[in-house]
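name: query_chain
kind: protein
chains: 1
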Amino acid sequence: MIVQVVSLGSLWLRSRHNPRTVWNTTGVSVNGVLRSRALAYGLVRLSAPEAQRLSANRGRGSTAWISSDVSMHNGARTLHLQRPTKNCSRPDRYLVALSKDFVGKLSPDSWDADTTQLLSFSQCASEQEVLLLLPAFGWVRGSTGLAVLTPSGEWKIAG
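structure:
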């Protein structure tokens, strides 16, 4: 599967068993400290060198990756970003992280469950972050608006 990484969660973890593996997930600020507070726990897995490359390219647009399908690993939904694609292939899915600042408060029915996969959902008090795998033209509806993801990885927001 080809996944275009539009945005990632705010919490980064390093594997205790393999220092060359890095995990990304959702997180929220709790008393000034970033914590998971997962309602639904999931992870994006990638190698440490690829994570550094991805971090260095932050702000320069999204990147397309060869990826595994979402699977369950130790009780967590897991997506393995294996390597960036060498060409500009059309992505099968788009990986996005969203907070309540995007379209307002989100709930489990804020996206089409038939076409969109939830990877992780963190919440504490009014803070929220969700990590989703959407198709082109996938949508997210929050308390203040609706957003549709275009094939370019850009959002069209109404509301």
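note: The chain has one domain: 2-158.
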